[in-house]
Write a structure and sequence with these properties.
This protein is α/β, with parallel strands linked by helices. The protein contains twelve helices and eight strands. It has one domain: Alpha/Beta hydrolase fold, catalytic domain (Rossmann fold, 3-Layer(aba) Sandwich). The C terminus is likely disordered.
Length: 277
């Protein structure tokens, strides 16, 4: 697998598939680039797909310790990967990867063709639209979760899995999957904290002039829809898409629907641009 040496000197590992219009797929937390393996099988063939392991995951080097703006630091790394494309790339992020994709798109908008976010955990959107109740409830749950991770409680990560993907989802996982998740719980806790510490402004979001879709599972918790709806209000021209029957684990349960949402969005925008041109 190729890797990119970042300006910081750290190494960012990524997979590359196919050729054509560049598409960068950003995984959620905890996870690595393999999270997209089922989705990539259904994507259009005329696509150059780049799938990074976020810093600290997979084979990528971790971030420096003590960073106060974790999501922004990760987005800087993704921005350097986007620069490799030599033409505007489509960015797609799932869960915390959606937060990273949004930050990267705002930083590198001149190198971004469009943005697809599937259930981003962008808590900042709730603040910006004045939905204090949802924000407080989400933070209360996450505070309990973080305390259990801090105590190294076995299977604490199961709380997060069941919250987003439905009660009993963690119990249905294989022992191999559970082991991976438990090993990554501390890193996930860092990402959870980062999702509550973002400082993007409403003005920054309102100035983003690239096409955006925000996908949400029909079976996901209400919080996912509230975040998606809030973010759609803040990003001009953003389109909400529902994936019936899907929950937060949609990359595994509904890979075809996720892929067709990405491809359909990209194709429509290309055709629209051709017609206008």
């Amino acid at each position: 697998m190729p890797s990119l040496t970042l300006s910081s000197g750290a190494r960012l590992n990524y997979a590359e598939i196919g050729s054509g219009t560049p598409l960068v797929l950003i995984h959620g937390s905890p996870g690595d680039g393999r999270a997209w393996s089922r989705v990539t099988k259904h994507l259009l063939p005329n696509t150059r797909i780049l799938i990074p392991d976020l810093p600290g995951y997979g084979e990528s080097d971790p971030l420096a310790r003590g960073l106060t703006r974790r999501t922004e630091a990760i987005a800087v790394a993704i921005g350097e990967l986007i620069d490799l494309c030599c033409e505007p790339a489509w960015l797609c992020g799932h869960s915390y990867g959606g937060n990273v994709a949004l930050h990267a798109a705002l930083r590198r908008r001149e190198h971004v063709a469009g943005l697809a976010l599937f259930e981003p955990v962008f808590m900042r959107a709730l603040d910006l639209v004045g939905d204090r109740s949802s924000r407080v409830d989400a933070q209360a749950f996450c505070t309990t979760y973080l305390a259990r991770v801090e105590l190294a409680e076995p299977d604490a990560i199961g709380l997060m899995i069941d919250f987003w993907s439905g009660a009993g989802s963690y119990a249905k996982m294989s022992e191999r999957q559970k082991h991976f998740l438990n090993e990554a719980a501390a890193k996930n806790a860092e990402d959870v904290r980062a999702s509550f510490a973002e400082v993007i402004t409403a003005r920054q979001l309102a100035s983003f002039d690239r096409p955006v879709i925000i996908g949400c599972g029909g079976e996901s918790p209400p919080l996912a829809a509230k975040i998606a709806g809030a973010l759609a209000r803040l990003l001009p021209g953003a389109e909400l898409r529902s994936l019936p029957g899907a929950a937060h684990n949609m990359l595994d349960s509904h890979p075809f629907e996720v892929a067709t949402s990405i491809d359909g969005f990209r194709e429509l925008r290309v055709l629209a641009g051709t017609a206008l041109g």
